[in-house]
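Practice problem 4.
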């Protein structure tokens, strides 16, 4: 029974693990819109599995890597909506690299029918009308390809107290301009509710069934007329369908109105129209908002371009927009209408309507200009294909794109790219060669996960991440001895490796203590060495690309030796030279004369050679003269029975040689030391003569 329970327990665990695996597999397989690029991590570093090395760079095999779709230019292809590439190359300057991001967009495949509902009240004249027409032209230019192939069509409703509408939808911008200039008329009254309902009717009756339907309202949103509610209209309590703004709140609303009635509500207190029923602006506002709530149930996408709106106008306009990002503003004279419509156009036919790129630096990577990452630190270029299919610079593609950086993470916002449009961003990086954990000749990923989000709420699409590396050096050290006997050479010496041209505050400047041993012929070579207890590589250059200068320095040089370091080829040579000895000054010694009786009982005396000649009263021996030495003259008496006379030799007596022994702390002679030696000798001679005179007096 016990065994059976054990089996059941193990079977249960196995079942849970199996289910977990299956669920995990389902989760992974569900992510089909982004690629999970493979990376290798081994002794040579971290790099893309499907990549290729060139010098100190390692890039993805664009167009060749298995399991990934590419376009005709070898960009990573994300479902024909976004095309991505990221690469690195060596730049001018040692240790400097250029990283380039490239993104291409495409044209949406879904046809679009859009209606522009324009406030055409009495102020739509002169400069304001001119700007409206220019804005329409710019809008048409942005949509030119889509208009040309018929994938996008535009209809216009102009309103004041009256309604003017195009004959369905058109792809001809010239016709639309002519409609605004010649057909639509300006009048007093802002019957916004009437214009909104006319725009809805155009979309419902004239648009293609398969087309996406867009609704763009342009005006100050300050409605001053509205329809009367239907007699049987349901009154709805506002529970969030109408959002509060600027202190305005709608308590309740209706969605059904008497659109066929001639009577209407107006905020004007002095209207001459007998059908006008004066009411407060709150009534007109709430009735307009009730219609907006009803319109949004149709499923259309709504944009609101507010022209210098009042607080009440903003309240209405923001509630019209399908999303907060769909609410845009421009000035009263519509000079910014083109920019606002361009932003909308990006969302209409561009597969990347409002993209954001997030690009963090990799570990051990130094972004050049970090903390002050302005336009001098990067190159942002827009591109467009010409009729010959060649990419040419088109900076308008980069208009509205912003580049920012914080904590070594670059963010590119406002990316809008359609068919035949491309954006590139190039910046520079270095490897942190002064980091304690730097590894030479080892691949390091330039970045962390780098992604593009084509529009708010979309899934992040990944870029392949390239790698870079930096070289290291090896050091060879040799010890030599000069003027040293084998017995004086120790079994080992200690030294340290030092370096200059460091730039980082935490960059090491000297190694731990190292040893050269006699058993190894006092030589060694290495590519790593201990620093603060950890093994460190020897990079060729610092964080600014300047070569490090490495040298060695012996620790505790033995007394009596001088240590020097030279370079022989690629080897650092430490030479210990035994210092040459210098003569030492010895105090003069005085020897008392000894008297010995000779056979003739005459004393023999030896005079100092520097005074009178010494005379011996012996038989025939001549007196000999002796040159003075550095010691005091000694008086020596004869010790034989017969008298002897010292004759002067033709040669001078040998002077006593003083050998120089190694002395602790000895230094080379300094300036004026030779003069000091001469004075000492003179003093010795004077003392000697004085001693002789004293002796004679005795």
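Answer key:
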């Amino acid at each position: 029974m016990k065994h059976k329970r054990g089996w059941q327990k193990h079977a249960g665990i196995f079942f849970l693990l199996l289910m977990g695996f299956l669920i995990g597999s389902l989760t992974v397989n569900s992510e089909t819109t982004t690629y999970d690029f493979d990376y290798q991590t081994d002794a040579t570093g971290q790099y893309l599995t499907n990549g290729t090395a060139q010098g100190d760079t390692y890039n993805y095999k664009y167009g060749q890597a298995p399991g990934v779709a590419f376009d005709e230019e070898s960009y990573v292809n994300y479902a024909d909506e976004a095309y991505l590439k990221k690469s690195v190359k060596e730049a001018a300057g040692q240790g400097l690299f250029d990283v380039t991001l490239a993104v291409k967009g495409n044209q949406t495949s879904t046809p679009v029918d859009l209606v522009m509902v324009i406030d055409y009240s009495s102020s739509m004249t002169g400069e304001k009308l001119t700007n409206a027409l220019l804005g329409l032209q710019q809008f048409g230019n942005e949509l030119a390809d889509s208009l040309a192939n018929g994938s996008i069509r535009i209809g216009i409703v102009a309103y004041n107290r009256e309604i003017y509408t195009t004959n369905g939808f058109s792809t001809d911008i010239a016709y639309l301009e002519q409609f605004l200039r010649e057909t639509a008329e300006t009048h007093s009254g802002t019957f916004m509710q009437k214009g909104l309902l006319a725009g809805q009717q155009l979309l419902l009756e004239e648009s293609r069934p398969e087309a996406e339907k867009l609704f763009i309202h342009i005006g100050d949103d300050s409605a001053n007329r509205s329809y009367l509610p239907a007699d049987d209209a349901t009154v709805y309590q506002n529970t969030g369908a109408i959002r509060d703004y600027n202190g305005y709140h709608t308590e309740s609303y209706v969605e059904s109105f008497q659109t066929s009635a001639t009577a209407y509500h107006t905020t004007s207190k002095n209207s001459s129209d007998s059908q006008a029923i004066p009411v407060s602006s709150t009534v007109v506002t709430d009735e307009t908002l009730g219609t907006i709530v009803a319109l949004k149930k149709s499923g259309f996408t709504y944009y609101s371009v507010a022209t210098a709106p009042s607080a009440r106008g903003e309240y209405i306009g923001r509630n019209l927009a399908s999303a907060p990002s769909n609410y845009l503003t421009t000035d009263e004279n519509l000079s910014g209408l083109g920019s606002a419509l361009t932003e909308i156009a990006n969302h209409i036919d561009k597969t990347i309507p409002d993209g954001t790129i997030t690009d963090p630096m990799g570990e051990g990577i130094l972004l050049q200009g970090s903390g002050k990452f302005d336009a001098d630190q990067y190159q942002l270029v827009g591109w467009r294909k010409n009729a010959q299919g060649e990419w040419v610079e088109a900076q308008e593609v980069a208009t509205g794109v912003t580049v920012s950086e914080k904590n070594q993470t670059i963010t590119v916002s406002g990316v809008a790219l359609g068919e035949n449009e491309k954006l590139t961003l190039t910046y520079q990086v270095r490897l942190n060669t002064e980091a304690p954990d730097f590894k030479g000749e080892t691949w390091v990923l330039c970045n962390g996960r780098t992604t593009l989000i084509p529009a708010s709420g979309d899934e992040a699409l990944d870029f392949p991440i390239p790698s870079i590396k930096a070289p290291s050096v090896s050091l060879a050290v040799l010890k030599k001895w000069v003027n040293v006997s084998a017995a004086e050479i120790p079994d080992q010496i200690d030294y340290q490796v030092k370096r200059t041209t460091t730039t980082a505050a935490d960059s090491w400047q000297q190694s731990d203590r190292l040893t050269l041993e006699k058993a190894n012929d006092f030589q060694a070579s290495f590519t790593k060495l201990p620093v603060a207890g950890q093994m460190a590589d020897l990079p060729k250059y610092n964080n600014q690309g300047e070569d490090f200068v490495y040298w060695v320095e012996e620790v505790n040089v033995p007394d009596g030796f001088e240590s020097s370091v030279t370079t022989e080829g690629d080897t650092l040579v430490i030479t210990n030279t035994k210092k040459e000895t210098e003569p030492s000054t010895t105090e003069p010694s005085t020897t008392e004369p000894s008297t010995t009786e000779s056979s003739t009982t005459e004393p023999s005396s030896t005079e100092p050679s520097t005074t009178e000649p010494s005379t011996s009263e012996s038989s025939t021996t001549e007196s000999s003269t002796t040159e003075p030495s550095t010691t005091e003259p000694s008086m020596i008496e004869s010790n034989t029975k017969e008298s002897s006379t010292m004759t002067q030799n033709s040669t001078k007596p040998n002077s006593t040689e003083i050998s120089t022994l190694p002395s602790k702390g000895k230094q080379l002679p300094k300036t004026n030391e030779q003069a000091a030696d001469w004075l000492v000798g003179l003093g010795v001679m004077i003392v000697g003569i004085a001693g002789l005179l004293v002796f004679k007096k005795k």
